[in-house]
Structures are given as structure tokens and as C-alpha cells.
Queue: 2 jobs
Job 1
Amino acid sequence: MSTDNNSGIAARWKGRTNLLGLERSELEAFFASLGEKPFRARQVMKWIYQAGEDDFHRMTDLSKALRDKLNDVAEIRAPKIMTRQVSVDGTRKWLFGTDEQNGIETVFIPERKRGTLCISSQVGCVLDCTFCSTAQQGINRNLSAAEIVGQVWLANRELGCTPKTGRAITNVVFMGMGEPLANYRNVLAALRILRDDLAYGLSKRKVTISTSGLVPMLDKMIDEEEFALAISLHAPNDALRSQLMPINDRYPIAELLAACRRYIEAGEMRQKHIYVEYVMLAGVNDKPEHALELANLLRSLPCKVNLIPFNSFPGTTFKRSSKEDIDRFQEILISKGIITITRRTRGEDIDAACGQLAGKVVNRSRKRAAILEQRVGTQT
Ligand code: SAH
């Protein structure tokens, strides 16, 4: 397995089919087009994801003729590693180049019993939440399935994970740059690969989609795949939420929570609760009356609340709530019977914490509405 992905592979292999990011059915169709049996797709899938291999010549259970053929017509190409940073707390952040001008950030958060990879779904973000650094970057484009799943593939290699050493990444969360449901098709493909036993085999509880609440896409996703759901609520009423998150004008709280109920009720096998994320902004949404209003709003919704202390970034006027205010807010929710935890801030010294990811984005924000419209309106 080669470890350097920065060798201008993209230019050299232009025109070949990138097998990274193809779902099992697509990979089988690709092998069928070469006149090969479906089990070849399954073999190659294991090589790509479980062995982290990108060189067909090393896929030793394929015939020499097939390896040569694959080398001619296909490639396994992830984004390029641009920079690596390691926090004092062990959190790692990578900047992965997605094309000549743009890059996305991916964060690995090691904990005692698990390792969480926080991945991006867009170059920038189509939304404009006022308290988020990514939103300030604007939007360039959606990531392809290869670029989404490629973050996991690259991180595994960077962390030195092989089938022998075992996995460092036990959980994947779509909480990096971007709004995953605004890139529905490619996020769904990536989700299927993350869940596929021939790839990463992650159970539904181990893959979390975090969304600001694009209700129609959320409903579609619920019909298609299983995953853990986190919603970014951040305010207990529409007036405040619309100020913080303009998307609320389009999908107000009642509609979003109704979609969350549909998710919870969708079937036996589903998660029995959702996660509600709530960023703690000093003097804005952190008062006891907000906590009471939130408790009332969530009263009958099976959920766990994650309070996220605000993480600062250049140019913002928001401030993090004090520890006392966060504790008081948490106590009120708990006293009302709502399971609530305060998320520990990780990787702050390398700007890897929630809402701090900026990447490298050539802003095309004027296209924001068009990208959002297209995703919400016409994707199948
Ligand atoms: N677009 C998705 C993923 C966003 S990032 C979503 O909206 O859910 C994951 C979480 O970090 C979201 O809840 C987001 O609102 C939160 N976040 C954004 N900026 C933040 C900041 N500066 N400090 C703390 N959390 C932030």
C-alpha cells in the first residue's frame, strides 16, 4: 500500500472510472460491463475499503489479466492530503484538496473506547447559519461520493489502520463542512458504503447525519437508509431560530420536529431517539427561560440534547456561554426529564472544533440558492 496520495494521480489517470465511492450495485454493474462476474466487485470492494488498497496490481486474488485491465480503465482516487494537524488533546485535522483551488477539512476525535471521524459533505456550506465559520466561507460545490467516502479511506490510511491492526474509526458523523441533506444523492451513496459489510460495515448507530433540517430530503433519506439522526435546533422558538439559522424560514421548527417523529416511528429497526444539538451562545439562547421553552418543545419527543459550547472564529461577535450558564441550562432540561449532556470541546487549538472548519473554499455564494433549490426540488 502506498502512503502518498499527492502524486498528481488525478491528472495522470484522467478519464478512468474512479471505483472509490461506487456502491456495491454500481461496482457490480461496472464489472458486468467488463464481462466479469459480480463476485469480482465484492473482492475489489474489500480491497479498497478494508485493505485501503489503491493499486490493482496488489489485489492478489484477481487474475493478472483482470488486474491489467483494471489498471487501464479504472482508478482508486481519493482527495489529496494538503495538511495534517494534531491537537494537544490528540484530535487530528486534515485539509484534503478536492481540486486545484478548494479543500475540505476532516477531523478525527480519539476517545477511550471509540474513535469518531467527523466528515464534510460540501466544499463550504449551502446554508448561512450566523454562528458557524463554515457558513462564512460560502459554498463552492457538493462533494462527490468518492470525496465523501474518500475522507474515511484516507483517515484510515493516515491512522495506519489495516485489517490486522483493527479499526481506529468506530463512528462516522456528518458534522464537518456542509449540509449533508443538501447533497442528498452523494451522501446517500457514501452512507451505503459506510454501512456495507464489504466496506466499513458500520451499524446504523455508528453513522450520524447532522442536519439543519431540510425536511423533504430528510423524509427521503429516512425511506432509503438507516442512520442516527442529529438535528441542529439551537433555539426554542421560530423567531430566534430564524435569526440564527435563516433556513428556519423555509422549514420551521414544527415541520422539522414532525419529520423527526416520522424518523422515530419509521419502523422496528430504527433508532428510538434522535439527538438535538444546541449551541450555547452567551446572552442569545442560553437563559433559563430558553431552557424551559426548549424542555416544553421537546417534551414528547424521544431525544437526547447535546449542548455545544460555542467555538469562536475570526470575525464573529458571538461569545461562548459561561460554564455556570451552561450548567444551569443543562440542569433545567434534566429536571424536566430530558437527557442532556454538554459536549466536551475537542481540538480547539487547531480550529478543529464544531463550527470552526473553514477548509479552502472559492466562494460562489451567489449560487447558494440555486444549489439549495436544486437539491430540495429535483433530486430523486
Ligand atoms: N450542516 C449540518 C452539520 C453542521 S456542523 C448541521 O447543520 O447540522 C455540526 C454542528 O456544529 C451543528 O449542530 C452546527 O450547528 C454546530 N456548530 C456550527 N458552528 C458552531 C460553532 N461556532 N460552535 C459550536 N457549534 C457550532
Note: Residues 1-13 have pLDDT under 50 and may be disordered.
Job 2
Amino acid sequence: MSILVVGTVAFDSIETPRGSAERVLGGSASYFAVAASFFSPVQIVGVIGEDFPKEYLDLFSRRGINLEGIKREKGETFYWRGRYHEDLNVRDTKELHLNVLSGFVPRLPESYKEAEYIFLGNIDPTMQMEVLNQLRKIRLVACDTMDHWIQGSGHELRKVLGRIEILVINDSEARLLSGEHNIVRAARSILKMGPKVVLIKRGEYGVLQFSDSSIFATPAYPLEEVFDPTGAGDSFAGGFLGYLARTGDHSQRGLRRAIVYGSVVASFTVEDFGLKRLTTLSLEEIEERYQRFVELTDFHT
Ligand code: AMP
């Protein structure tokens, strides 16, 4: 089953304690699309500027990602510069230029309007809503957001939350959105805003899943070295939704497996800068690490 994603397609400049990278391919939609493409066909909706190189479009095409919904506009591509602290769970946004993204109105190609699995990646909630309103056969909608939109477009975001099944969000953003410091209380409060499931990403500490009837916790895959955490959240979401769309199994068991696949893909993303590691990754490597993950968390046998 194919997945539609809307989000940013970006140039990122990144500094981490391990090094830096200038103007590499990034953006919430880029990470999500490449991660999900290991499991399901992906259709991407986004905007790029005149400065966006063909080389990056080719990278998407090689992963079989449908680019009909990418619009090239006059101006520069969305640009983000971030710096990570020694504690990689903490990062500062040093620069954020919306550029061609400001005022972008997503118009879906006809061939996208039948999409059933949808990921509303981190982008202006007004654009997330525009996309939802053009879809005819929605089966499952997952959504991400960040502090920038929670603080600046809270009202619009609340409307989106009323129309989705799954919210994928960082712990600090869950606190900001709910006004609750305790993460369990934060999740409970977000569940009241609309989503049936809340997935709280806690960086190197893993993911917590909350629904009305269950809580599930997984660690992050332990790595000796993390080069660049950028895109871990979006890659997690891509692996997660990609696997769900492939199996169609939305049961608690299916969701839990999807969470582990998402965590596995994210663990590869952070092994190198930007999208580099994902471009050399194979499904065999994903399956192998999935098995290691099963062993890592097995305390029952
Ligand atoms: P993640 O590390 O998964 O939270 O996502 C990082 C990606 O988000 C980077 O590649 C950035 O280009 C992108 N990004 C940063 N700020 C924003 C924003 N305000 N809206 C949308 N995308 C953003």
C-alpha cells in the first residue's frame, strides 16, 4: 500500500560533537520518504527552490519515490541550521529560513488523491490540513510537529489533531503541547485532543507508545557512536508507517512490530551525517538488526 507524505524538503547545515555538514539534503519529508521506501511505495508532496540539485532528486528516484507532488518554485529551498550539544538529545536551531515554503499551497496530483496511508510530516499545520482536505480514501493518518508550530500555529494544529489517528512527537514537544511535565500525563492529555495513539520519541532513550488501553516501551538500539541525530524522528516515522502500510496490520501486535522497525531504521540514520547511511542501507541489514533488537529486549525466555 502506498504512503503519501507531506513535509519539508530542505538544505540542512549540521554541527554535532562528531563533526559538521554544510547544506546537505534534509527535511522531514526527505527522511520520512527514504525510510518508508524500504517497505512501501512513497509519494512525496513538497516544495523546492531553483537551487535544489538534480542529484538529490535522483537520490529519491533511485529509492522508487514518486516525485510528481514536488513543486519547484522561484526562490531558495527551505534552509535549517542546527547545533547539537554534547548531550545529543539537546539541539539548538541556529537558522531557519522558510524561503519557498512560505505561502506554499500543496496541490495534490490526481494520482495522489487515492492515497490511504498518510504522513503529515513536520510542516505548517495549515499545509497539513490542505493535504488532508484533498484526500478521498484515507485509512490511517499519522502526524508529526515541532515546537516552532506548537508555539506559532497552535490553533491550526489543534484542528489537525482532531483528524488523525497517530501523533509522533518528541518528549519536550509533548510537554509543550500538553502543558504537563510528566510524560504519562502529557500523553493522556494529548490523547484527549484526538489521536488514538501517541508515540513519544525520547532520543537515545527510545519510544513510548500510549493509547487508551495500553502502554508500550522500547529502547533505542544501543550504538557506540552517534554521528548525527538529525532526521532520527522522521526516519523512525518512515520505518514505522512504511511497515504498517506494508502489512496492513493495525493491531497492537502490528503496531509494536512497526515501532521496532521504525527504531531500527532510525538507528541507521544516526550512524552518519544527513541521509548518507540510508542511501547505502539494505533491507537485509534492517532485518538483521530487527532480530538483534528482539534479542536485546527479550527477558521472557
Ligand atoms: P528531526 O531530527 O527528525 O526532528 O528532523 C530534522 C529535520 O527537520 C531537518 O532535516 C530539518 O530540515 C527539518 N526542520 C527543522 N525545522 C523545521 C520546521 N520548523 N519545520 C519543518 N521542518 C523542519
Note: The first helix runs from residue 28 to 36.
